[in-house]
Design brief:
Low-confidence stretches: 140-195
CATH architecture of the largest domain: 3-Layer(aba) Sandwich
Structural class: alpha/beta
Mean pLDDT: 80
Strand content: 25-35%
Radius of gyration: 21 Å
Order of helices and strands: EHEHEHEHEHHHHHEEEEEEH
CATH class of the largest domain: Alpha Beta
Distance between the termini: 60 Å
Largest sheet: 6 strands, antiparallel, barrel
Number of domains: 2
Length: 299
């Protein structure tokens, strides 16, 4: 039976589900409630006292930083653990969050193991005591979750046999991605000549350098060299793209499709489709600007 309460705050339902599932598997004594933005979280926190807050930074209506500032002014939440889970990992933002009283900072994309360690760190003896009283072990659920996640994503290092695939792996399809024509030049020419916009895709344990092949408000398809570490289907991803004038958009998503660029066994390039999950209007506005610039550059 749950004895502790946690509030998960993120405008992307996909991320909220990941966090809640991790908590449910690893810490069954923690009951989770979720909110899509800081304003909704503030309302819930005014009616119910939570033992832990896990919150995104960039959200519509009220950001994670604004929620943290409000929370630290409330007597009942002065010392409540607050974990900021965000794709904003630069030093200035970390310092700003620390000044406002954040307990821990976790960068997106995160692994279940990384999230679990942060929760254990901020909750300490409170969590240990609750788990002991319920007769639960924190090691067992963690191992079980890791095994189930591995089976789900079938994540593995790239091998020659995988490069032979001309259909999406794991049975995941994306009509818009698979039907789009390749550019006249080869992927190698496009990447080396700079004919495509570059994108950096961050995963929990690696970063993929790639070139944007196609993009819309729903997903991005990129081409990357095969000699890099590749993710698994459904893995979390953060796509970093320059929107112009030195501005960077950090878009949260998940891997929807992996596909060999051609049928040759020794193909050098792999196509990756990442589906976006952000609902923040500001991020969608930044993405729209990039799409307009990207399409104009292809004419």
């Amino acid at each position: 039976m749950a004895t502790l309460k946690a509030l998960v705050v993120d405008d992307a339902s996909f991320v909220r589900d990941l966090v809640k599932r991790t908590i449910r598997q690893r810490f069954p004594v923690i009951e989770t409630t979720d909110a899509q933005n800081g304003r909704r979280a503030q309302s819930l926190m005014s009616r119910t006292e939570f033992d832990l807050i896990l919150c995104d930074w960039e959200m519509p209506e009220m950001s994670g930083l604004e929620l943290l500032q409000w929370m630290r002014q409330q007597p009942q939440y002065e010392k409540t653990p607050f974990i900021m889970i965000t794709s904003r990992g630069d030093k200035d933002h970390v310092i700003e969050a620390v000044k406002e009283g954040v307990s821990e900072y976790l960068g997106k994309p995160f692994s279940p193991e990384g999230l679990g360690k942060k929760i254990i760190k901020v909750m300490g003896r409170t969590l240990t005591a609750a788990m002991s009283q319920s007769g639960k072990s924190m090691a067992g659920p963690a191992d079980a979750f890791k095994e189930s996640a591995t089976l789900l994503t079938q994540k593995r290092e790239p091998q020659p046999r995988a490069a032979e695939r001309t259909e999406p792996v794991s049975g995941v399809s994306s009509p818009s991605a698979s039907s789009a024509p390749l550019p006249p030049e080869s992927p190698k020419q496009a990447v080396t000549k700079g004919n495509m916009s570059l994108a950096s895709i961050r995963f929990a344990e690696s970063t993929l350098k790639s070139a944007v092949k196609d993009i819309n408000l729903t997903e991005v398809r990129v081409i990357a060299r095969r000699d890099q570490a590749f993710p698994g289907i459904l893995d979390q991803a953060v796509v970093d793209i320059e929107t112009g004038e030195g501005q960077m958009a950090r878009l949260n998503g998940y891997v929807h499709q992996l596909q060999a660029v051609d049928k040759r066994r020794d193909t050098e390039f792999v196509s990756i489709t990442v589906r976006f999950v952000d609902e923040d209007p500001k991020k969608l506005e930044d993405l729209s600007r990039f799409i307009a610039r990207f399409r104009a550059g292809k004419r």
